[in-house]
């Protein structure tokens, strides 16, 4: 019996020692990775930059800077007339960013022993005006053209729309506080209220010139719709199938979105345009899979982010005309989450 006890203690001792070594190795790796990350953030920037300054007074593009070096991950701007020129990089780190001429919404992760997520509203001098906690990983954000409404989408579970069983939380917030999770709005499909509880809402886009109306994506029981939302009625009404992450054109006549031509387990998203009056859908020429909420450069051109094919953690913003024959072209290198401010 004593031999068995001794052998058991020996095995437990070996197990504990191995576990301690693994944990120590993981700790060393984490520390080294963090040090490499911090070194990369303080290195000389790999593109032309200027120090953070107030939002430009001329039309500009706001985006997340993904160029290696100092300012990586921070909100930045370039003139709309010179998207490839020197970028003004702020000191605000954001995972998702969107803005108007007077304010910016920044979704961010505060990393530490416990990572927390928050939404910050910043004025044109990049000073925080208000903030609130987010319940998950930042995914999408939009501001209404008049700046009165802010929409945020986060992943509560899952890190991608291609992940089976993903779950989102989408809220619309105004100055007086949140108008609530859009999953609590009545979802109307073919004239009837859908009572299923397994629903996800994401990708809000606000209609220009209207304070009550928006579009979004709704999903339930394996089906996906473009829905037209009403804040006053607290309703979401399905108007078209298979539309994800909608973005309305500046003139309010068309929706740009990503369209899955793969399957639920092998999603492959194309860029598509829906004419709201006729219901006609046009799939554009981009062949690469897009996992972004499209932005409109103007009424005839869209912008979207794609991960860089050669550098992990980097991405680029591409432009594409809405003519089916148009071909994609690079718009801003080393950038993500574009917001065109006219």
How would you portray this structure in words?
The structure is a single chain. The chain has about 350 residues and is mainly beta. It has 1 helix and 27 strands. The strands form 6 sheets. It has a 6-stranded mixed sheet, with no helix packed on it. The protein has a 5-stranded mixed sheet with strand order 1-4-3-2-27, with no helix packed on it. Strands 5-6-7-8 form a 4-stranded antiparallel sheet, with no helix packed on it. It starts with a helix and ends with a strand. The relative contact order is 0.10. The model is unreliable at about 20-35 (pLDDT under 50).
The count of strands amounts to 27
| Sheet with most strands: strand arrangement | 14-13-18-17-16-15
Amount of helix: 10-25%
Total of helices: 1
Mean pLDDT comes to: 88
Q: Kindly name the structural category.
A: mainly beta
């Amino acid at each position: 019996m004593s031999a068995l006890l001794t052998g058991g203690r020996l095995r437990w001792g070996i197990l504990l020692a191995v576990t301690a070594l693994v944990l120590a190795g993981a700790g060393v790796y984490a520390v080294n990775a963090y040090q490499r990350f911090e070194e990369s953030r303080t290195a000389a920037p790999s593109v032309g930059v200027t120090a953070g300054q107030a939002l430009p007074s001329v039309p500009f593009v706001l985006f997340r800077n993904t160029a290696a070096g100092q300012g990586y991950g921070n909100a930045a701007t370039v003139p709309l007339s010179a998207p490839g020129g020197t970028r003004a990089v702020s000191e605000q780190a954001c995972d998702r960013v969107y803005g108007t001429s007077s304010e910016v919404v920044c979704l961010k992760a505060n990393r530490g022993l416990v990572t927390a997520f928050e939404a910050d509203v910043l004025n044109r001098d990049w000073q925080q005006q208000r903030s609130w906690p987010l319940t998950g990983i930042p995914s999408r954000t939009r501001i209404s053209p008049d700046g009165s409404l802010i929409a945020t989408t986060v992943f509560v579970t899952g890190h991608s729309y291609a992940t089976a069983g993903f779950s989102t939380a989408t809220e619309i917030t105004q100055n007086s506080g949140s108008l609530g999770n859009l999953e609590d709005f009545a979802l109307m499909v073919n004239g009837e209220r859908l009572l299923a509880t397994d629903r996800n809402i994401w990708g809000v886009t606000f209609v220009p010139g209207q304070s009550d109306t928006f579009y979004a994506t709704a999903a339930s029981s394996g089906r996906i719709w473009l829905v037209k939302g009403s804040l006053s009625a607290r309703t979401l009404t399905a108007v078209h199938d298979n539309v994800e992450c909608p973005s309305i054109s500046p003139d309010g006549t068309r929706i740009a979105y990503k369209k899955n031509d793969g399957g639920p387990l092998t999603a492959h998203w194309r860029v598509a345009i829906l004419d709201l009056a006729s219901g006609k859908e046009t799939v554009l020429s981009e062949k690469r899979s897009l996992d972004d909420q499209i932005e409109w450069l103007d009424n005839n051109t869209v912008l979207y982010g794609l991960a860089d094919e050669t550098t992990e953690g980097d991405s680029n913003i591409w432009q594409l005309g809405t003519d089916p024959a148009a071909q994609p072209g690079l718009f801003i290198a080393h950038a993500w989450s574009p917001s065109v401010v006219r």
